[in-house]
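About this split. The held-out portion is used to measure sequence recovery: a designer receives only the structure tokens and must propose an amino acid at every position. Recovery is the fraction of positions where the proposal matches the reference. Here is one held-out target exactly as it appears in the evaluation file.
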């Protein structure tokens, strides 16, 4: 299959292109900047499934009224260490960042901060938010629900979403350790990325309408949970913590990302922030994280591997490489970003998935 043409773009230039496109769709400068920062962060770390490839979708939802342009953000503190951030279906990237600020503040005061984000839009890569906490010397876990596109273990039709989990911890003399994963073998964004590149996918990622494994990203009807029943259990846990716990729709009731772009998503997310200084010496904690990384690096590598990396380290390596060479963006995506077109109106028919309700 022919490889797509790629364009190399500097991170700050990519940020500016995304911001301008989202402002053209109707977002305020502040919120467009917030979304652009998150998407450029993802592309800069090689998480292209949550980067510029999403802009057309966000722009169309904004233009069609499915995103609240001037949301009434408010934080309701529910206890010494807890609260709910009302997102009013504003852009999820901005709402989640503001909610994480609240969780960090609670953890600085009480040792732990747990904040739910209520009725938000899609928020992109969770790594962005847990890094926000790790940069403040906090440990963070973030989980969020997504629309049903995953067959439960033993099932033949979708029920849960990809329901990602992210973790971050600060370390001494180095970037935070950041781990971000979908509870599926791959995130749906990876399917979009494969479509944009005209590439096949491994047969272990997804199934077609008959429940059979497929290598064609255009034939994907549902994704598969990572590690079978284990991933299935994790995605159920995430849906409970970010959906049921916040009084939001869950499972197959979670709104579709692509079917009706005129309505808000009403999604949920949960940030859990822990202040290490309330449990041990912060300096010792960060030194031990650094020691753990050093010991993993020193572990004998298996055949075919040059070195053992810590979970999430590949994204850090990619970020360093892209800082020198530029971020590779599919030319079609780049051409859209530099065009006068706000969106391609590609999501307003049946959607990429049929209704699962």
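Reference sequence for scoring:
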């Amino acid at each position: 299959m022919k490889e797509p043409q790629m364009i190399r773009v500097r991170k700050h230039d990519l940020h500016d292109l995304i911001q301008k496109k989202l402002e053209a769709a109707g977002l305020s400068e502040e919120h467009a900047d917030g979304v652009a920062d998150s998407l450029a962060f993802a592309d800069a770390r090689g998480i292209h499934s949550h980067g510029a490839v999403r802009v057309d979708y966000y722009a169309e939802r904004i233009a069609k009224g499915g995103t609240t342009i001037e949301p009434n953000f408010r934080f309701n503190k529910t206890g010494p260490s807890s609260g709910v951030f009302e997102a009013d279906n504003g852009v999820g990237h901005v709402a989640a960042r503001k909610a994480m600020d609240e969780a960090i503040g609670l953890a600085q005061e009480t040792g732990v901060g747990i904040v739910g984000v209520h009725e938000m839009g899609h928020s992109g890569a969770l790594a962005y938010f847990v890094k926000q906490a790790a940069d403040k010397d906090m440990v963070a876990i973030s989980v969020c629900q997504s629309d049903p596109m995953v067959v439960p273990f033993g099932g033949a039709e979708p029920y849960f979403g990809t329901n990602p989990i992210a973790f971050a911890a600060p370390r001494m003399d180095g970037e935070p350790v950041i781990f971000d994963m979908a509870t599926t073998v791959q995130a749906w964004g990876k399917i979009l990325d494969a479509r944009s590149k005209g590439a096949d996918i491994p047969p272990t990622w997804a199934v077609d309408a008959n429940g059979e494994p497929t290598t064609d990203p255009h034939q994907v009807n549902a994704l598969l949970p990572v590690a079978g029943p284990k991933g299935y259990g994790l995605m159920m846990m995430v849906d409970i913590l970010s959906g049921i716990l916040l009084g939001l729709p869950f499972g197959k009731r979670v709104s579709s990302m692509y079917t009706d772009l005129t309505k808000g998503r009403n999604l949920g997310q949960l940030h859990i922030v822990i202040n290490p200084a309330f449990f041990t010496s912060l300096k010792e904690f960060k030194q031990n994280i650094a020691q753990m990384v050093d010991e993993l690096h020193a572990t004998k590598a298996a055949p075919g591997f040059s070195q053992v990396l810590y979970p999430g380290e590949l994204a850090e390596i990619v970020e360093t490489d892209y800082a020198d060479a530029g971020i590779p963006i599919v030319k079609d995506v780049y051409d859209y970003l530099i065009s006068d077109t706000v969106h391609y109106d590609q999501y307003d028919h049946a959607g990429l998935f049929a209704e699962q309700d």
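Annotator remark: The chain is about 35% helix and 15% strand.
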